[in-house]
Amino acid sequence: MTAVRPGDRSDSSAPALGGFTAGQLVKLCDLAGLEAADAEIYAHVLIDALGALAERPLDRPPPSDSFLSDDHTPVEFSLSFLPGTVPSLRLLLEPGCGAAGLRQNGRTGLRVIREMAQRWDFSTGRLDELEDLFFPSSAEGPFALWCALELRPGGVPKVKVYLNPAASGQERSARTVREALRRLGHEQAFATLPQADGYPFFALDLGDWDTPRAKVYLRHDDLSEADAGRLPRMSPGLGSAVVQGFFRTAAGLKSGDGPDARLGGRPVLSCHAFTETATGLPSGFTLHIPVRDYVRHDGEALARAVTALSHHGMDPSPLLGSLAAVTSRRPRDGVGLIAYLALTHQHGRPPRVTTYISSEAYAVRPPVVVLPHQVATVH
Ligand code: TRP
Fold it and tell me: DSSP string spanning 2-56?
């Protein structure tokens, strides 16, 4: 249960976490071309997944120091763009946020996923096979379980589960990832991954997917544009020029910054998605740039997102609408509303650009005057 802390007083007129985030979601659904009836279903799905936390008034502090988002809101939105169509809307949430301890957090997360599986009639078999790896009795690390929902027309979402490779110890993360891949039949997958500084997430598609993926997220400290171009392991892949171009745009590199300019603040992540087991090679690649650490305010993040979207032939107007759907503040009056910009290549499909949108239910980070992490060129 939610621990009551000193200062946790609330006046009952304050909006509650569930109502606030569900209100944002309903507006975003409209931008993603979902009908009002679907929006209503998904608003209830969000409120159900938050459980008792949904009722928590926002004038109380966040239920935990969840690292799902910077202000500890246990909900984040994303819009994933493809050329020539409305973006798809996704929702990331931490069902166990507010539990007393990581173990309980994970238990609540598993229970919520299993309730979803019953409701939408999908199997949790792939998750069950990994339970001992990611849910040990004394779990460690920054989180236990997150869940992402892709909100399709029709009111039945596609479900993804995010697990913590450091659950059995940070030093065992690589082993945990390798073993999880092996159990899912991807024996050779681990050996194909590029060099990394950490393994922040392991993710699984559950439910109604054509080709369910197992995804490994890698952390890359001080990554340069040239390094980024070498990360994809797919064949055929995107080509390093496309990856490097996206890196330059999202990181805001100037013409004077050479290919060795490095992102020394919050690290870039790459994600490698495995579907088939024959070649051992991934069939999906994503580069995640934490744009919020490399801009002074969201006006700059928005400009970079618009450049990247336009470059890939995507209409940026739903992104503009999405910011207005979640907040009435101006982009330049804070930083962190656009948390990440990501470029995804899935085998046989055109590249996708994804923008991660914070809820800011609890706090807005003020704009910065000087960038905390100047892009550094190491000579
Ligand atoms: N807030 C965490 C981070 O910044 C986790 C996270 C939330 C994340 N949304 C994400 C990571 C999107 C990658 C992409 O790392």
Answer: PPP-TT----TTSPBHHHHHHHHHHHHHHHTT--HHHHHHHHHHHHHHHGGGGG-
CB atoms under 10 Å from CB of 230, counted, come to 13
Angle at 243 between CA 240 and CA 248, to 5 degrees: 120
Sketch the domain layout of the chain as residue ranges: 23-377
Residue 9 has pLDDT above 60, yes or no: no
pLDDT tens profile 259-272: 888 999 999 999 99
Torsion over CA: 52, 54, 60, 62 (sign): positive
DSSP states along 232-270? ---SS---HHHHHHHHHHHHT--TT--TTEEE-SSPEEE
Q: Confidence class of residue 12 from pLDDT cuts 50, 70 and 90?
A: low
Atom of ligand 1 nearest to the CA of 70: 1
Tens digits of residue pLDDT in 57-114 = 999 999 999 999 999 999 999 999 999 999 999 999 999 998 999 999 999 999 999 9
Ligand 1, pocket-test mutation among 340, 341, 353, 360, most atoms within 8 A of CB: 340
Distance 120 CA to ligand 1 centre (A): 26
> Smallest Cα–Cα separation from 140: which of 94, 178, 102, 97?
102
**Ligand 1 centroid distance, CA of 42 (Å):** 22
Torsion of CA 253, 255, 260, 261, to 10 degrees: -30
Distance from C-alpha of 232 to C-alpha of 243, rounded to nearest angstrom: 9
Q: What rounded mean pLDDT belongs to the chain? A: 94
Amino acid at site 131: E
CA-to-CA separations, 170 to 135, 166, 271, in angstroms, rounded? 14, 4, 19
Distance 164 CA to ligand 1 centre (A): 13
Q: Ligand 1 — pocket residues by CB below 6 A?
A: 67-69, 76, 92, 269, 288, 290, 339-340, 356
Residue with tokens 């799902």: 68
